[in-house]
Amino acid sequence: MRGVTLTFTFNDSGEAVSFLSMLKKELGDARLYGEIKGKKLKVFIPEGERTDDIVRRVKTLYREIHEKTLTVRPRKLGVSTILSMANLEVAIPVPALADVLNMVGKKAVLRGEYLETNASLKEAVEFAEKLSRAYKSLLHEPLTATARRLAAVASVVLGTEPDKAVDLLVSKGILKQVEGNVSLSEEYTKSLSRLRSLLEERRDDVRETSI
C-alpha cells in the first residue's frame, strides 16, 4: 500500500499511546494507522485525495502538543521526528544540522537518536529544510563530503546561495581548490571555527553599518 509514513519520538510509550489516541479523536474518519515500538510511534497515512491535508494536520497536532510540554530546559528532539516533520529535498547529515543550530546561537548536541537543543521543534525543522535545499544545490559540485557539509552549513548561516558560499570560503582560504576539486584547507572542526569567525565578522559589519 502506498502512502506517507511519519515517525515521532516521545519520552515514553505512554505518551505515544496518548498521542495516537488523540490523533484518531481529532481527525475523525481520516484513514491512518499507528504502530508503537517503545518510545517511537510510526503513523502511516494511505495515499488518497486527502493525504496531504492529513499529513499536514498530524504534523501540526504533534508540534502543538510538543511545544506545550516544553520548559526552558534543553529539549530532546527525536532525530527521526525532525526528519519526518521536515520536507527534505535530499537527505542531510544530522551532525550538519547541529552545526547550523550552534552557529545561529542555538545550543545543539547530537546524542544518539536525539538532538539536545534549546531550539524549538519548528526551528529545527525549518533549518533542516534550508540545509536540505543547500545540499541539493551542491550535489553535483566537485566537493569532498566534508567540504560539501561545510559549504551547506555556510550557505544557511550566512544566508547566501550555496555556490556563492563555496566561492567565499575558497577566497577566505577555508576551502581550497586543487585540480578542479574543492576540499577543506584544515580538518573539519578548525574549518567550522573559521566559519564561525567569518559569521561574527559579518554580524559586526552589519552592526557598524546600522549605527
Notable features of this structure?
Gyrase A, domain 2, 211 residues, 8 strands, DUF2067 domain-containing protein, three-stranded antiparallel sheet, 2 domains, alpha+beta, 18% strand, single chain, DUF2067, disordered C terminus
Give unreliable regions as ranges: 206-211
Give the overall shape. Answer: elongated
Beta-strand percentage range: 15-25%
Please list the strands of the largest sheet in the order they lie side by side.
Answer: 1-3-2
Number of strands: 8
Tally of DSSP helical segments: 8
What does this protein structure show overall?
The protein has 211 residues and is an alpha+beta fold. The protein has 2 domains: 67 residues, Transcriptional coactivator/pterin dehydratase (Gyrase A, domain 2), CATH 3.30.1360.20; 115 residues, no CATH class. The chain is built from 8 helices and 8 strands; from the N terminus they run E-H-E-E-H-E-H-H-E-E-H-H-H-E-E-H. The strands form 3 sheets. It has a 3-stranded antiparallel beta sheet. A hairpin with a 2-residue loop joins strand 7 and strand 8. Helix 5 crosses helix 6, helix 6 packs across helix 7 and helix 6 packs parallel to helix 8. It is elongated and about 60 Å long. The C terminus is likely disordered.
